[in-house]
Amino acid sequence: MAHSGGIMAAGLGKGRIPWFGKDINLYGLFRNDHNIRDLVAAGAASGVSAAFGAPIGGTLFSVEEAASFWNTELVWKVFFSAMIACFSTNVLLSAFEGHPTQLSNPGLVRFNVFENLTFDLIEVPVFIFIAAVGGLTGSLFVVMNYKLTVFRQKYLHRKKWIKVLEAGLVSAVSAVAAFILMYSVNDCTKEHPYSHHAITTKLGCSGGDHNSMSTMFLTTPEGCLKSLLHDPLEMYSVWSLVLFVVVFFLLGVWTYGLSVSSGVFIPSLAIGAAWGRLIGLGVVQLFPDQAKDVGKYALIGAASQLGGILRTTISLTVIIVECTGDITFGLCIMISLMISKWVGDFFTTGLYDMNVEVSGIPLLSWEPPPLCEDVHVSDFMSQPVMTLLSVERVGHIYDCLSGESFNGFPIIEQDPHYDLMYRGKLKGIILRHQLLVLLKKKMFCPEGQLPTANVNLKDFDNPYPVPQRLKITDIELSDADKQCVMDLTPYMHLTPYTASISFSMPRVFRLFRGLGLRHLVVVNDNTEVSEQRLTNEPNLLVLPTKRPLLLRLEGILPFFLEN
């Protein structure tokens, strides 16, 4: 749901449906990186809010995981969208169930309210143990999924039909495994009048008994989770819970990353609830007078398992509290999530961070890595970088765009005291897509003349939301065009962010993260920059972006697993 919400927000912000050729001019103001980024953060929060009926938790989830940049002004916008999503879901679900005026369905997934559920202080060590187990199993989940993700990218994602075949194979294996367990495990228990599951079958059981294994596999994952959290002690045997945890864990690892609309929230909660309930059965056997309800252990296990996989603390605490509607276990849930995160971080990163790393997405973490105070910006800056003059020859611009993949080009004022053609004081910066638009619109002319073409802001905004952006190969220029000149002064950004060449990595890191930058120009003390690197010339123009910064971070703190 978080992914779906982000996709919908990005599409609405662009205001264009390329498949139907529709363009909603009303959303033209949102066609920039800043607004699209904020809309995606709000969409992710709305998706979580609609799924769990947790607008506050969805907002905090957006802070911890979805948003790459955050400010106080964005808080009320994201929370408002999450609240509207929760209300809309409530209205639609209530209308679907036949009582549109009784809004009793705040989310798609509800854990139901725990009645008269309390805990003793002597049970806190058990909760801590459950949290540690959640961190270990979460790390195992991440490691196995990492190996599988690398294998998928290397062999399975080359052709679309292989993706479809894999999804069908996972579905078939899941169904076969479920029916084999239901028919082979003769786990007959008596039907309880207060059970919360929806589907029961006998499958070899006689009288009023039913097969508890079928309850976990035939019902929906949400129904299975409710059953594990709320059903009485005698509903599930130890053997059934062990088999369910092993099979569901392996299927969860295999399923996450398929080319289907699937998530990790509900499967992880169900797995954790199962082994948490299993630990609860052991505690009941050891301390029958103190522990009478295994639901509390299932709840802590569910939270610990999900926290051990995702490594988020505040948002998951609030989401679970909002889903249960009970603040009694708020502190225990928070402690279990913190411990599961600490234990998990000792072995691996979180699942989302791992996928970002494997996919090569240039997304920085919130804090710079340790042990990098002595690393300077000159150690990881992109070099050499192509620079442009204020009035530049079209042929040189075309060659820069064709030969380099940079998305920003510094503009300099040539210094007559140097023999280098492209060395001088920094005047501004111009983006790649701006240069492409200027070339496409032929905003150039022979030297000494004025351009006859016109360009406006809408021309620069139009290429943004199109999936296939304007490329240099789409622009055709004659030899005469390449001899013309282009005045870049009216289009460049006059005050780009700069950094001294002596800046440390943590300082540059915080500039990128705190200001939400994509480019940063590094200059010497005289704001002089140069296109080329000379052995005896340290005063360079460099343009660090997120990707080279991430590459340097990988060199300092290598990823937890390597091929």
UniProtKB/TrEMBL annotation:
Keywords: CBS domain, Membrane, Repeat, Transmembrane, Transmembrane helix. It is a multi-pass membrane protein. It is found in: Membrane. CDD domains: CBS_pair_voltage-gated_CLC_euk_bac (cd04591). One of its GO terms (molecular function) is chloride transmembrane transporter activity. The chain crosses the membrane at residues 39-62, 74-96, 124-143, 164-185, 236-257, 264-287, 314-339. It comes from the Eukaryota. This is Chloride channel protein. GO terms for cellular component: lysosomal membrane. Signal peptide: none annotated. Its main location: membrane. Pfam families: Voltage_CLC. The keyword Repeat applies.
